[in-house]
Structures are given as C-alpha cells and as structure tokens.
Amino acid sequence: MPDDGSVDKEGNAVDTEPADAFALVGNETRAEILRVLGEDPWEGLSFSELRSRAAPDMDSGQFNYHLQQLVGQFVRHTDDGYEMRPAGATLYRTVRAGTFNRRASVEPFDAGFDCYFCGAGVEASYDDGMFDLSCSGCSHVYSRTMAPPSAVEGVDPEDLLARIDQYNRHNMLAFARGVCPICVNGLDREFMPGEEAWTEGAERFDVFVRHTCDHCGNTHYMTVGLSLLYRPSLVCFFSERGLDVTDVPHWELPFVMTDRDLTVRSDDPWEVAFETTYDDDRLALVVDEDLTFVEEPAVTVAE
Ligand SMILES: [Zn+2]
Ligand SMILES: [Zn+2]
User: Ligand 2: distance of its center to the CA of 188 in Å?
Assistant: First the structure.
C-alpha cells in the first residue's frame, strides 16, 4: 500500500495534490509499469507477469514498492490482477501520441482559402505542439489547435486539414453547448468586446464569446457565428440551399470566421443580431449572452 495518501484504508483512490500525481510517475520503473499495462488496458496482469514484462531484473520487493506507488491513482488491483485506471490510460495515450517527448514541425502550406480581411493566402503550419492557420499577409490568426506530434507526422496536408477541421468542430460544439471537452465540467460563458479578448486578431470583432472552465483551467474564445454553427435552423437554412455547413471546412464559412453578419444591439445585457444571406435568401435571428434566441430565426425568401 503506498504511504503517500493516494489510497484510503480500503485501497480506494483519494484526491491528491497535482504535484504528487506528477511525482508518482517520475521514475523509470513506474513509467515502464504504465507502459506495459497501457498496451493491454483490458487485461489484468498478475504481479509476476507484470514484473517479468516491466522490470525482470528487479527484485520483487523493490518492484512491489514502485507498483504500489501507482495503485490507487493510476493502477487498480482486482481479482484479475493489476490493470489501468482511467487516469493511467489517459496518461498512457497522451505519452504514446508523443505529446511530451517528440518534436515535429510542418512547414507552412496553403490552407486553401484567402484572408477575409486582406485577401492574402492563409497558410497552415505546425510547430511545438500547435497547429496554426494564419494569414500570410496580415497575420490574422484563424485557428490554433493543440495537437500531438503523432497527428502530423508523415501525413498528407489535405488529410491533416480535414482532421483539424473535424477535431475543432467537435471541441467547438462542446464549448457552444457549455461543456468542457477536456474535463466534462459545465462552463462559464461570457460575451465581450473583441478588443478585450485575449486572442490574436480578436480586436477586429465587435463581440467575442469566452468560455472558461474553472475545473481544468481551459479557456476558449470563439466567434458568435461559430457558437451558432450547429443550430438546427442555421444548418437547415443552408442545407435546403445546397450547402452542408457541418461538412465544409469551417474556416471557409465567412459568417463563422468574421463578424460581418453580426450587429451588436446592446452590450448590457448583451443582445446580438445575426443576419446572413445565401442565394439571396435571408436568415435572421437575435441571441442573448446565453445564446438563447431573443428573436426566433426567421427566413425571408427572395422574390
Ligand atoms: Zn490577412
Ligand atoms: Zn475543463
């Protein structure tokens, strides 16, 4: 049984300080135990089998000491043997994707659309764990995505762009619905003038939406257009006119990447009108800071 307080008398995991959790894995043997268990997360391993795979030359007392450090926090001991707890599996997958120990970069390449602000080509690039879409002319940042090196190593640019689009959509939908995609906490949502948003290029916007998670510390900024992207009325409006906004890269949708279809009616309390056109038909709606409709979506068909 570990003596660091990570389990109670019955062997159940209890809360520990973040520094303690990091310290637990700061050891070669413990890292190796997690690697071995991570390779077969659904299969319990007996003590002797685990030792023979992770540290065959270590005496069993010493090995047991390291193993018990992990039990509770990252590993559990059941009738089937030792197996990963979800926290251990998360750590294993993050390490395996190369997040901590590998470096990769991708030279800037054409992202396939022009800047909505200056008309220059927008470029995609990847370095230091961050995938960026930014304008080659005015440097406006369209998107920043944290991704592990395994996401970009040896892949085709088109394929990479398509995956980044889908991954971002998945995260943004969670944010727009008020759920943190990292820790499943409920989020605080706040409208703010673009110039107060701590994100590059936001000063070009009259209004930005900030989501903050007080559990994991995640903060995410997005446009009002993005926040509305999956509303049925909006998806239907475009779909009926032949454009599937859930499928095209979201950065190719001007109403998502700019606020030219928005009018701030009031900033106390916030009330924002959204009005967009497609094939001369018009969709109009008004939302408040909760993204609740103050005025229901209305479609006007061109004569
Ligand atoms: Zn530009
Ligand atoms: Zn969170």
Answer: 11
Tell me whether residue 247 is in a domain: yes
pLDDT digits (tens, 9 = 90+) for 69-97: 899 889 999 998 999 988 888 888 877 77
Decide if 129 contacts 103 (C-beta within 8 A).
no
Residue 252 Cα, ligand 2 centroid: separation in angstroms?
Answer: 28
Per the structure, the count of domains in the chain is 2
CA of 88 to the centre of ligand 2 (A): 18
Q: Show which of 63, 96, 129 is a domain's final residue.
A: 96
Domain holding 81, by residue range, is 18-96
Residue 157 lies in a domain: no
Q: Considering the entire predicted model, what is its pTM?
A: 0.77
Distance 281 CA to ligand 1 centre (A): 28
SS3 state of residue 70: helix
113 is a domain residue = no
Helix (H) or strand (E) run with residue 110 in it: strand 105-114
User: What span, in angstroms and rounded, lies between the C-alpha atoms of 194 and 204?
Assistant: 7
If we measure between CA atoms, which residue out of 243, 262, 263 comes closest to residue 253?
243
Of the three residues 54, 76, 96, the one that is the final residue of a domain is 96
Could you tell me the distance, in angstroms and rounded to a whole number, from the CA of residue 213 to the centre of ligand 2?
5
What are the tens digits of pLDDT across the range 94-145? 777 777 777 888 999 999 999 999 999 999 999 988 999 999 999 999 999 9
